[in-house]
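Dear colleague,

Following up on yesterday's call, I've attached the two folding results inline so they're easy to grep. Please treat them as preliminary; we haven't cross-checked anything against experimental data yet. The first protein's sequence and structure tokens come first.
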Amino acid sequence: MEFASGIAETVSVRLASYAAQEVCLAWGAQHELRKLNKTLLAIKLVLEDAEKKQLQNPLITHWLGNLKDVCNDAEDVLDEFEFRKLRLKVQRSVKGKFLSLQGCEALEELPNGIGNLINLRLLFLTTQQMYLPKGVFKRLTLLQTLLISSCKNLKSLGEEMEYLTNLRQLWIGMCGNLESLPPNMKNLTAFHTLAIADCKKLELMRSGEGISGLRSFSVAESNLEALPNWLQESVDTLQSMLIGDCDNLTALPDWLQNLTLLEQLVIGECPKLSALPQGMHCLTALRVLMISGCPELRKRCKRETGEDWSKIKHVPKRVLDDSDDD
């Protein structure tokens, strides 16, 4: 059973957050929220002691049950605050360029009006939905940055991404059930940055076709065994690449040498990666190489004596396991 003191603590933390936000000021409720927060914190201290004694006294058990109901009622009130705050945020974004629903993990459905915010430049989404509703992206033709985070149920981003003709950056994180990237991304001619983290079901090898012109690509906490071949569509544009926490990655592709504009390569926590491809010396634009958490690769890159030293000695800045090689 969830203890009343735990609920009280949750409510007090949420109150402290809400008290600092403009929605509270708009309602003239900031002072009252702070008073309620102090009261709940005091109750919590009493409850912690009472919970330890409830097994010996059935009256205390009954009392705790009643207080739990009170605390749950307080949480319901805060849920109403959250809803109104979200509504205010959407309403104020009609003329604005920024909308963030970050952290709204309890949000069961995205607000219907998002698709009408045609002036949006940046959109940050969190939702419980398995699929993004149709029509969300069709009119957001000015959107430049899209961030999707903590959508634990999301399986697909749908097929409407192609309408985001001005999209430049796509960031996807902590979407554990996401299975594929959107199709038809070849129409995104302004697109240049793709970052993916902690989306372990995402099949990057089987999705992503059509993505081209990338300047920055990063992938972290992935089950990737190899880099996706569609990255070759960006050989003439890619300038930065980050690969981190990819436990199953065993090798970098030979076509890596064709990334003639690559300036920065960061590789971290890829323990099975044991060697660099033969053509690394062809990356004449490479200015920064960072390698950490790759013990075998680190040995091969050891100055003068490592088997891969000749492949990287032309790089001006080398950081191997958090220490400068030079």
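Below is the second protein, in the same order (sequence, then structure):
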Amino acid sequence: MIRTDYFKMIVQIVKELVPVLTSGILTLIILSCVLFGIETYFNFTQGVFSIGATVFQNGHIHKLLAYPFYHKTSAQLLLNIAALVFLSGSLEKGVGTVRFLFLFFLLSTTTGLFYSFLDLLQEEGSQSQAEGLVPVVLASVALTTMHTKMTKGFLCGVSFPTMALPWVLLIITTALIPRSVLPCNIIGILVGWMKGKGWFSFLDMSEARSGTLEKMMPFRLLRSIRGVKFVPASTEQRRKTLLPLINPTPGSYPVQAYAPLSPINSPNTVASSYEGWQNSTSAHISPAPPLHPHEHGSAHTFELNHGHCSEQSFGQSCNHSHSHGLNHLGQL
């Protein structure tokens, strides 16, 4: 029994730590794995899809679209996918799956273009080619921090300003992930910062346009995949998807408890204690004065049930008023 509870606790911790897989992230993972499989099967030359000065020297413009999904080793592929899953999910949840994929290709092509131009300006021996998902992941993190309202970020228990988060991740990813090119990663952060400042606002996709596209193929196919969350473009639908309504089972929440009225207490007395505690107001309240004999009918009607209150009170009131009238006439 103890081992079962311990296993359930470990599973719950893992579920909380691992982010929810979304449709946009899954699409990028599939593209990266497919390209890596094709490269391994056909034994392509090293750097066939890497970006650098060759983009302008040889006119290989197609590399600007392919370099994020190109990885030379399996370790580089797995670490890049891990960085994508843990760091880019917040951007997709904020803009929707369609606009996330559009922003991914916009950030990747812009970063690749700037880095290729920078590599072209360098000398022949100091040129280096770049590839992988890390530059675009850092650009998406920089874009997210530009729109967040949080002023402090936390990483491994350390607090620092939110705007410094991309630069902290830059140091970590460059040190841990193999074949990471530092200048390309820096350009990725700067491109995300420029996008957050609105420098590429003329290339933005509207919510209405993305809502129309998500009803077409292949986004309809992504929506139908079970176990993967498709984030809608509409703000209202996105809130319903990410923040579903909670329907608690009866009895799962505590309710207000009231003390039952003691049957030995008369209506004209005040309880001296409640659940064992002395009532402080009972010592200062004087007992209610007795009712007038002529008010017996109205007082009695207050204590009766609703079912026979009207009949009994009406009869007692009539009898009382009738006898009172006869006694009054007899005295005259």
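For the second protein, one point worth flagging: Residues 140 and 192 are 6 Å apart (CA to CA).

Best wishes,
A.L.
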